[in-house]
Design brief:
Blueprint: E1 4-7, E2 11-14, H1 17-23, E3 27-33, H2 40-57, E4 70-76, H3 81-93, E5 98-101, H4 105-121, E6 128-131, E7 148-150, H5 155-167, E8 174-180, H6 183-199, E9 204-211, H7 220-228, E10 233-236, H8 241-252, E11 259-261, H9 269-277, E12 281-285, H10 295-307, H11 317-332, H12 338-345, E13 349-351, E14 357-360, E15 367-369, E16 371-378, E17 389-397
Parallel strand pairs: 3-4, 3-5, 5-6, 6-7, 8-9, 8-10, 10-11, 11-12
Antiparallel strand pairs: 1-2, 12-16, 13-14, 14-15, 16-17
Helix pairs in contact: 2-11, 3-4, 5-6, 7-8, 8-9, 11-12
Length: 413
């Protein structure tokens, strides 16, 4: 049966015999994330970032292996685990050796298990899973495997940085935890409880609840409970439309304290919060752009925004995925023997495009890099979401949690 693959931002290309021959010359990377539904904005933005990085940082610089280009193929998983596994098989059927995914750790768990199983059974068509945003710590701990690499700081690493900032603020004595009801939301809550208790046991957690992911239409009841709790600060791992809805409801309910987040940037979030989010919305992540680390970064952001005026550099780690994959392929001397590429990638140390260094830790395939706590503000050079607001770095944590232990016991081929 012939299949049609979605390419670009919603464009469709039916692969003919002649087209397949041309595409076979490229290193194909399948992007498996939501391109429709309530989280489509996050997915289409990520796809744009991947396609731009591949073109600007690999293809325009001569490609890999002496002239082979990267091609990023968008596959819509509709934020569904079963659909993601179908997309994985579609990608494999089209000769794809590299998949990227990041939205939902639950889906990441399904993909990493499927990839591991496929590679054991099919040594001639093996696949690498390059995880750019699914941050459940289990993925590089008890669920680790050789074929999975994570380029984002995991939930524990980010919470370690966030709680360092929180415990230094004497005005914060009560904290409310709220998140989406799946593996990542649970990991954020567990990390917050652990780290706050260890660093400042006088901080009281006055609420800890989870809500259905992508299904809450009105967060007002949650916001009222937060205000009624007397919380001085809120911590949430919400992303996409759930971050927009929760944050807006909290602010409109009259909450005045800081809101500490993992994913409160762009995609309708920054503009929605606007002036109310200035000095209130805080985000922990990799890749500071205000200030930026170099003129090259400024030029890259400007070029991206010129090509994609309705999108932002919301996930800087995507650039590191593309650059480090290209380095690994060139070092391995092959793009099809993914075991060799994986061996080149693990332990790799590289210049982080956004400043500092990045290392893919060999024992668990967790990227170690600088992590930043940033705050929404006006008057910065690089704004988000077609608004006057952007994120400005407040605290930089160098090589965040580089010594954090792992329970990973990796089996190598």
């Amino acid at each position: 049966m012939k299949r049609t693959i979605k390419l670009g931002l919603g464009a469709a290309l039916a692969l003919s015999v002649s087209a397949t021959a041309v595409l076979a010359e490229n290193v194909k990377i399948a992007f498996i994330d939501p391109l429709s539904g309530p989280f489509a904005t996050t997915g289409t933005n990520g796809l744009a970032e991947f396609q731009f990085a591949a073109e600007e940082l690999v293809n325009k610089k001569g490609g890999v292996l002496g002239g082979t280009n990267f091609e990023v193929i968008g596959l819509d998983n509709k934020m569904d685990g079963k659909e993601s596994l179908i997309n994985l098989q579609v990608a494999i059927d089209q000769g794809v050796h590299y998949i990227v995914q990041g939205n939902s750790s639950g889906i990441a768990h399904a993909l990493t298990e499927a990839v591991n199983k496929h590679n054991r059974r099919n040594p001639d068509s093996q696949v690498l899973f390059l995880n750019y945003s699914a941050v459940d710590p289990a993925l590089t701990n008890e669920k680790c495997n050789f074929w999975h690499f994570r380029f984002d700081a995991n939930a524990d690493i980010k919470m370690d940085a966030l709680t360092d900032v929180i415990v230094q603020n004497d005005a914060i004595n009560k904290v409310y935890l709220i998140g989406q009801d799946y593996s990542f939301g649970k990991a954020v809550a567990a990390a917050a409880e652990r780290d706050l208790g260890a660093k400042k046991n006088t901080v009281e957690i006055v609420g800890n609840e989870l809500h259905p992911i992508g299904k809450v239409k009105d967060f007002t009841p949650y916001a009222r409970k937060i205000v009624a709790s007397g919380a001085d600060a809120v911590i949430t791992g919400n992303w996409g439309s759930d971050m927009v809805g929760l944050g807006k409801a909290i602010i409109e309910a009259g909450f005045k304290g800081p809101i500490y987040t993992y994913y409160a940037a762009s995609n309708g979030i920054t503009r929605t919060f606007g002036e109310a989010g200035a000095g209130t919305i805080n985000l922990v992540g990799e890749g500071s752009i205000n200030p930026s680390s170099s003129p090259e970064v400024d030029e890259y952001i400007a070029a991206f925004e010129a090509k994609y005026p309705d999108h932002d550099i919301a996930q800087p780690r995507i650039v590191n995925v593309i650059r480090m994959l290209a380095m690994a392929i060139d070092e391995a001397g092959t793009a099809t023997d993914v075991a060799k590429v994986a061996s080149a990638l693990e332990g790799m140390e590289a210049d982080n495009f956004w400043g500092g260094k990045i290392k893919m830790r060999e024992q668990d395939h967790q990227a170690i890099q600088d992590v930043y706590v940033m705050q929404q503000t006006a008057g910065v050079k690089h704004t988000l979401d077609n608004s006057e607001f952007g994120l400005e770095t407040v605290v930089k944590v160098e090589n965040a949690s580089a010594d954090m232990p792992t329970t990973c016991e990796m089996e190598r081929p």
